[in-house]
Amino acid sequence: MAKHTTAQKASFTDRRTRALKLASTGHTYDDIARISREEDWEPRPYNSRQAVGADILKGYRARVAEHNEAADVHVQIELEKLDQLEAAAWKVLRARHFVVNQGVIVYMGISADEGTKRGWNSVDALRQDLIKNEDGSFKEPLEDDKPVLDAIDRLLKIADHRAKLTGIYAPVKKQLEVSGGLAVDHEINTLMASLGAGGQGTLATPAAPGERPSVVRHPGSIGKAHRATNGANASA
Fold first, then answer.
1. Do 158 and 86 contact (CB within 8 A), yes or no?
2. CB within 8 Å of 163: residues ≥ 6 apart
């Protein structure tokens, strides 16, 4: 089979596009085939409604694939954005934050003894935020936990959004199995058979440990037994 040229492929695509447009406006496959013959569509008109249906199906599949590909690209772009936002949130989470009042850092006093217990005999080069007073006491900036908590909240929201984009929250189908279902059905059938075709019989009720089970006789069977006893007495 000879391969279609680029121009021929374009003609087939144009014909399919026209068919899709007519189908979306309420035209039947028979209508589209007839219109294609009347207007002599290139590269050739449709010769049957089946040909129209097959071409339209191919067009819809191509559109679905195109939309899915575009959606995948969009999801990937959004995931990369979330990665950048997550990195920024982690930066805030790892940083130290101090309480500020009217543009001034708030300090809390630490006694000389407490500073000695903490090993602050001299201001550590890594803790340049400490201020050592002349009397040996210290002033330590009061840390602010709110930015840290806000960063944690933001990270959770980012994780939630990422999970929705990637489908982690998609419902999981669970198959529930009833153990011993056939055995239960068998017990029911056995019980119904013991009651008899007319709904008569006896039913043993469960007994407590050490006791004999009690037998509850169906009213119909009691009447039947009573009649049988009377008959026996009469014959005697």
1. yes
2. 169
Rounded CA-CA distance 28/21 in Å is 11
- How far apart are the C-alpha atoms of 55 and 233, rounded to whole Å? 91
Three-state DSSP state, 221: helix
One-character DSSP codes across 20-31: HHHHHTT--HHH
Residue 118's contacts (CB-CB under 8 Å, 6 or more residues apart) are: 110
HEC readout, 126-173 = CCCCCEECCCCCEEEECECCHHHHHHHHHHHHHHHHHHHHHCCCCCCC
Tell me the per-residue pLDDT of 86-97, one tens digit each, with 9 for 90 and over. 999 999 999 989
Quick check: pTM over 0.90?
A: no
| Nearest alpha-carbon partner for 128 in 139, 118, 119 | 139
Cα distance between residue 114 and residue 129, in whole Å: 17
Residue 183 token pair = 């055995």
Q: In what order do the strands lie in the sheet with 138-141?
A: 107-110, 138-141, 131-132
Average pLDDT over residues 104-125: 69
Contact 148, 93 (CB under 8 A): yes
Give me the phi and psi of 204, to 5 degrees please: -85, 125
The strand pair at 100-101 and 104-105 is best described as antiparallel
Nearest CA to 142 among 106, 104, 93?
Answer: 106
Q: One-letter amino acid identity for 78?
A: E
pLDDT of residue 222: 47
